[in-house]
Write a structure and sequence with these properties.
Helix content: 40-55%
CATH class: Mainly Alpha
Structural class: mainly alpha
Number of strands: 8
Number of domains: 1
Largest sheet: 2 strands, antiparallel
Order of helices and strands: HEEEHHEHHHHHHHHEEHHHEEH
CATH architecture: Alpha/alpha barrel
Distance between the termini: 33 Å
């Protein structure tokens, strides 16, 4: 398995050393670049996901910062190079040619030759840019980030933000969680990736993936917890990059998330669907605001005590399940045929970077180290798999999944003697 932590050469090593070695090898194996130097990025999986994906690249860049900061910066500069004149950065960038024919019908492009998708993913770019710069300061990189993020944030506010400053999504895959059960009820047979999902994509294609037009037409739209958590984190990132007023904006977004999306009866966050209706399915996205420095402490403690560490909900042996184990929709392994329905129970590597900083901020150092320790043990045993069964720990999906290398950052955050940090 290229770059896997669970390969034969690593057997017998200390698990953390094994994971560090495997993560570095995985990043190197999945790296690709243009001969003329125009772009360079880490493929999430060389066969399954050969293109550049926004939040995957953010995770990979943060991991690269622990191995080769120059490549970390190049990863994010490649996303910046894909920015449209209006400021948008698509969630998938097709550097090596048009979207593959077998995916063109379902991908969020208007024409097959489009250089990138027209939709968003959780806007983590500001978070990642700041983390990379803090790890290896570079003034030119910082200045470039401020310019790129300024245009991106302006586009998001113009095209997606509501009166309270929270962003909207027009398809469930914009949440990054694709087939999450959170949107099953309003979408029904159009949920990802059921047959009707293609009709949803086609309708949005006719609207050129305009969120405002979708809302005006009465089509599906939602205010997603994870997307808006990433939005607040990106503002925090801009503040750490030296942008005046960005910290105030992050606090405003955080306050709006709590005010509009937190359910005080259940002690967890839920998205709002069409008509502003709360969609009460407990997914890991409902825990994501733990990442926010401005989250009220009492809210964070309920997220941790009543959900994240609860053995009947998210506190399963191999963290962190994408859906609470007490939800009827919870499925710990692969589901669906011929297309698998992701994010309905398995644990993914995108989740812990949101949750571990929150545990540390609340003083839950033992819980944070335990969570990361189990991730290290799982990676040492199974390698860097795309996702895994939270009950058995069995690796599933892609076998060389580069975003899993972000575990390097979590290991550094929970290293003995290291103070908790914000953002």
């Amino acid at each position: 398995m290229p770059g896997g932590a669970g390969d034969d050469e690593g057997r017998g090593m200390d698990p953390e050393a094994q994971v560090h070695r495997g993560a570095a090898a995985l990043l190197a194996a999945n790296w690709c670049e243009a001969a003329d130097g125009r772009w360079g990025y880490t493929r999430p999986d060389p066969f399954k996901y050969p293109d550049q994906f926004l939040w995957d690249s953010c995770m990979c860049a943060v991991a690269w910062a622990h191995v080769d900061p120059a490549r970390a910066r190049r990863e994010l500069r490649s996303l910046a190079a894909a920015q449209r004149p209006d400021g948008h950065i698509g969630h998938t960038v097709f550097w090596r040619g048009p979207v593959r024919w077998n995916r063109a019908l379902a991908y969020n492009v208007v024409r097959r030759r489009d250089p990138a998708t027209w939709t968003i993913q959780p806007p983590l770019l500001g978070w990642a840019w700041a983390r990379v710069h803090e790890r290896a300061p570079d003034e030119g990189f910082r200045v470039r980030g401020v310019r790129v993020l300024g245009r991106l944030h302006a586009w998001l506010e113009r095209e997606r933000a509501g009166p309270d400053g929270l962003l909207g999504i027009l398809q469930p895959d914009e949440s990054g969680l694709d087939a999450t059960p959170a949107y099953d009820r309003p979408l029904g047979w159009r949920a990802h990736p059921r047959p009707g999902f293609l009709l949803l994509v086609q309708a949005n294609r006719r609207r050129r993936f305009s969120y405002r037009r979708a809302v005006a037409a009465g089509a599906f739209h939602a205010v997603d917890v994870l997307v808006n958590t990433a939005w607040a984190l990106s503002w925090h990132g801009l503040a750490r990059l030296g942008v005046a007023g960005a910290e105030d904006r992050a606090r405003e977004v955080t306050a709006a998330i709590v005010r509009r999306l937190y359910d005080p009866d259940r002690g967890i966050f839920f998205p709002r669907g069409p008509g502003g209706r709360p969609l009460r399915v407990a997914t890991w996205a409902g825990l994501a605001p733990l990442a926010l420095p401005g989250l009220p402490e009492e809210v964070g403690r309920r997220l941790v005590g009543e959900h994240l560490l609860h053995p009947g909900r998210f506190g399963l042996p191999w963290p962190v399940p994408s859906v609470s184990a007490d939800e009827p929709s919870f499925r710990p392994g692969d589901t669906g045929w011929p297309i698998r329905r992701y994010w309905r129970g398995p644990s993914w590597p995108f989740t812990p970077p949101f949750l571990v900083p929150g545990l540390l901020r609340l003083g839950e150092h033992g819980a944070a180290r335990d969570l990361v320790g189990r991730l290290v043990a799982q990676a040492a045993r199974e390698g860097f798999r795309e996702y895994h069964d939270p009950v058995s720990g069995r690796g599933l999906g892609g076998r060389a999944f580069a975003p899993g290398a972000v575990l390097l950052d979590l290991m550094a955050l929970t290293a003995p003697g290291r103070p908790a940090r914000s953002g």
